[in-house]
Amino acid sequence: MTSLSAKIQDVFDEPACDYNRGKDAKARKEGCARPLTPGAAAGGCAFDGAKIVLQPITDVAHLVHAPLACEGNSWDNRGAASSGAMLWRTSFTTDLTELDVVMGQGERKLFKAIREIKETYAPPAVFVYSTCVTALTGDDIEAVCKRAGEKFGLAVVPVNAPGFIGSKNLGNKLAGEALLDHVIGTVEPDDAGPYDINILGEFNLSGEFWLVKPLLDRLGIRVRACIPGDARYIDVASAHRARAAMMVCSTALINLARKMQERWDIPFFEGSFYGISDTSEALRNIAELLVKQGADPQILDRTQTLIAEQEAIAWKKLDAYRRRLQGKRVLLNTGGVKSWSVVHALMEIGMEIVGTSVKKSTVEDRERIKQILKDDNHMFEQMAARELYAMLLHHKADIMLSGGRTQFIALKAKTPWLDINQERQHPYAGYDGMVELVRQIDLAIHNPIWCQVREPAPWDCKPDLKEELPDTKNEAATLHAVQEFVPTTADDFGER
Ligand code: SF4
């Protein structure tokens, strides 16, 4: 644990993080760890964060060294997509039992599990995740991985981020450290070129990076590694030969971006593929960085031409929705990069932002929101479910965009809701993704179901029915009376 403690300290003291830079020396030493509530960490722990970052590397076997529940908590709960290998979706765990713990069988079981995976699936690599139980029993996963790697001639990568050490975000960063320590730089590509880039922190949710990659292809820019979305092990292992990088989700992998810049001279910028102008800006920044790194300056003109063409197509498609959505009010309950990039995207088509949560946003994210919204009155740190419900019930927003956890607040307040977090079904990145996002918002807001559910319930607007209702204490009779009234006409539904 000593080396793990040092690693955590290192990750917390991230010089590229604005928040960290703003602290004094003492606060910086204390780090950003928030103590977890015992028993309430599952699903949001450091292990979970590490698994989220690494699992979309699709040809790798992800082996969780733990009792069964840790893997059950974290398996496949995000909508990342693969264009080929599917091994990442197979669940591997050592499934430790109490007997294994009592008999000290953890390391032996882990070694056998790695051998079984190698013999059955022959993957290019096995990633081994430590968890609370195996960290507490003192299993030395680094030593087991090293021994198994030598014995089987296989890359076996220890990911040392047991749940109890901290938050999901800390786990994200430790996953980046595992890649730096054991993967990136281990394969030397024979085809490195001046137009190679890395995309960091892009998860290819619902396949949305596939809406962006064709644009880069058209510019002759090769994505050496998209980490982690739809990545292959060999791409990640040779990512150190890229010329430039774009960091999509800063809070997840900023340490990876910064250290790759220091070790291999790969400059990076933070950008977003959500929204038309942000997509254009990201393309421009990539081209400019490549030119600074020695690429032919002609790429700048080609990029401008592509942007002009794609923007014109996207705006033409969006015009059909502009009239229907102009002035509609949006409440955005998400965080991170989406807190500003989606705000910007929606304002581009004339929607009004009545609030955006900045809970998971960096200082830089917040500054961007302020610039976009022109004031910070619409930024909220965290809104309690009760307040969120009251806001929606009093029609202060026409739609809420959030993750699945808050969907029922919106639905209970009879307000349209759209999932924009990791479980979403539709891709929203790039120009086409923006059109898709607006199409989904339009479908949600103008869904005819809202007219119906907002009408009073038939039993509230049928006084005669109320009078006819028998004594409510008599449950059988009440049920019979309600069953007899089956609304069929518009009048019955209270539409007149
Ligand atoms: S690693 Fe620890 S906190 Fe995370 S799911 Fe497993 S037991 Fe729970």
From TrEMBL:
Domain Nitrogenase/oxidoreductase component, residue spans: 45-443
Keywords in alphabetical order: Nitrogen fixation
Its GO biological process terms? protein-containing complex assembly
PROSITE patterns listed in its UniProt record: NITROGENASE_1_1, NITROGENASE_1_2
SUPFAM superfamilies xrefs: Helical backbone' metal receptor
Q: Which family does it belong to?
A: Belongs to the NifD/NifK/NifE/NifN family.
What is the name of the protein in this document?
Answer: Nitrogenase iron-molybdenum cofactor biosynthesis protein NifE
